[in-house]
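Lecture notes, continued. The same structure-token format from the folding unit now serves as the input rather than the output. Read the line below as a description of shape only.
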């Protein structure tokens, strides 16, 4: 197999985030999460549900970019009211791209800076992160793994719930939080360490464990043997060519 593009390796690794979910709604925010969910639906968990990004559930994932003659294979209406039924019922797993993540898995997409009244940068606001994070599973994609994203201390604005007992709402426990995986340009992590500590699952070829630790602002649990992230298969690469015929993913890590 010729040299594998890093973005393809990340997408194929991230596709496994939904592999054991069964029939839930997969939402991928951004090109890499969208392709990861599509690849999972096409080849790993065929019970996974996805929409055409408009208002219909589809029988197969829809390619990204200009569709040409392709016609989505629509199955049934999936408007906002039905989307929210899935959200509040826990039948959804979203992969999102936070601006900051802390050791608890709390994520921030709202603002950067210590003073909320005078932020250094103002972004989207918390959007749907609070309800999503308390209601269903979530995973993260980070294209540039650094201490600016994986911060020491808490994120500047807690937009989504994590494994922080000090911030849990009344009546909730840490068992109600479900953060599956973190997929970056350096590695794969999860929260499977002691006491839900972030854990290093694999490193991409050419990346050392030390590089990951230096690029992360909090302590990461490192198992005794950290494998290299698996190569995509020829079948997976063929699917990516079908799902992204214009190679839009090539710019995702730029």
């Amino acid at each position: 197999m010729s040299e594998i593009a890093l973005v393809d390796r990340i997408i194929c690794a991230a596709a496994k985030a939904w592999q054991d979910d069964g029939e839930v709604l997969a939402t991928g925010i951004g090109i890499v999460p969208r392709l990861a969910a599509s690849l999972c639906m096409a080849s790993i968990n065929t019970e996974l549900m996805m929409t055409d990004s408009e208002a219909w559930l589809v029988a197969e994932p829809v390619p990204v970019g200009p569709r040409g003659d392709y016609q989505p294979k629509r199955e049934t209406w999936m408007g906002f009211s039905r989307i929210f039924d899935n959200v509040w019922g826990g039948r959804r797993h979203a992969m999102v791209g936070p601006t900051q993540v802390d050791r608890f898995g709390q994520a921030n997409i709202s603002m950067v800076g210590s003073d909320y009244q005078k932020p250094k940068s103002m972004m989207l606001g918390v959007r749907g992160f609070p309800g999503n994070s308390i209601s269903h599973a979530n995973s993260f994609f980070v294209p540039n793994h650094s201490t600016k994203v994986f911060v020491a201390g808490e994120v500047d604005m807690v937009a989504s719930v994590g494994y922080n007992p000090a911030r849990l709402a009344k009546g909730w426990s840490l068992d109600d939080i479900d953060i599956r995986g973190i997929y970056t340009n350096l590695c794969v992590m999860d929260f499977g360490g002691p006491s839900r500590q972030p854990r290093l699952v694999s490193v991409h070829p050419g990346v050392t464990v030390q590089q990951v630790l230096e690029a992360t602002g909090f302590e990461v649990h490192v198992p005794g043997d950290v494998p290299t992230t698996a190569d995509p298969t020829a079948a997976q690469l063929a699917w990516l060519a079908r799902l992204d015929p214009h190679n839009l993913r090539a710019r995702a890590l730029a």
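Point for the exam: The two ends are 24 Å apart (CA to CA).
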